[in-house]
Write a structure and sequence with these properties.
By secondary structure, the chain is mostly beta strands. It is about 10% helix and about 40% strand. The chain has one domain: Sandwich (Jelly Rolls). Strands 1-2-10-7-12-5 form a six-stranded antiparallel beta sheet, with no helix packed on it. Strands 9-8-11-6-13 form a five-stranded antiparallel beta sheet, with no helix packed on it. A hairpin with a 2-residue loop joins strand 3 and strand 4. The longest helix has 10 residues. It starts with a strand and ends with a helix.
């Protein structure tokens, strides 16, 4: 496992080891001792091509997320929503696939989303905190002020994500809230 730090504080792109032979492969997905994080909560999603999930954040007990694609390919996006960060409002993106064996650790305080690029996409999220549905927030992934360059023009969004707040609305709520 090799970790590559990026300009976003706490965000880590991980190149996992993969051992292949004629039977298939065996792959390391995470070594907690390398990134010094614990993941008590794991979930998985399935998405068809063109599906955009996010930009999601949990404001109470914000989750760090280790994102790994076990089948397919995604365009993954992490938006820095930490108001005191030098990179507040900026995003990091990368392509993750079952073939490249990479994962990304997104620290607490980032919004997360992705666009599915293959016909079938299975994504595993290893999270540092349990889900708190009452503190889940969404920023619209099509918000022009975020300037996210989604690779596929066609986008399939949930009603929740279509109607999510703008980044400007997020900033206004952030100013008024003590919990965020």
């Amino acid at each position: 496992m090799k970790t590559l730090n990026k300009k976003f504080k706490g965000l880590i792109l991980i190149k996992n080891k993969s051992f292949q032979d004629n039977r298939g492969y065996f792959r390391e997905m995470v070594r907690e001792n390398k990134i010094n994080k614990r993941f008590p909560f794991q979930v998985m999603s399935f998405s068809k091509k063109n599906v955009v999930r996010g930009i999601h954040i949990q404001t109470n007990k914000s989750q760090g997320k280790l994102i790994t694609v076990i089948k397919g390919k995604i365009f993954d996006v992490a938006v820095d929503l930490r108001s005191k960060s030098k990179t507040f409002g900026k995003y990091f993106s990368c392509k993750l696939s079952s073939e490249d064996a990479n994962s990304i650790y997104i620290p607490p305080g980032f919004g997360h989303g992705f666009q599915a690029l293959s016909n079938e996409n299975y994504v595993v999220y290893s999270c540092t905190h349990y889900r708190d549905k009452f503190s889940e927030k969404s920023v619209n992934p099509n918000d022009v002020s975020l300037k996210i360059k989604w690779p596929l023009k066609k986008k399939i969004l949930s009603e929740k994500d279509k109607n999510a707040m703008s980044f400007e609305e997020y900033k206004e709520i952030l100013k008024k809230s003590k919990n965020w």
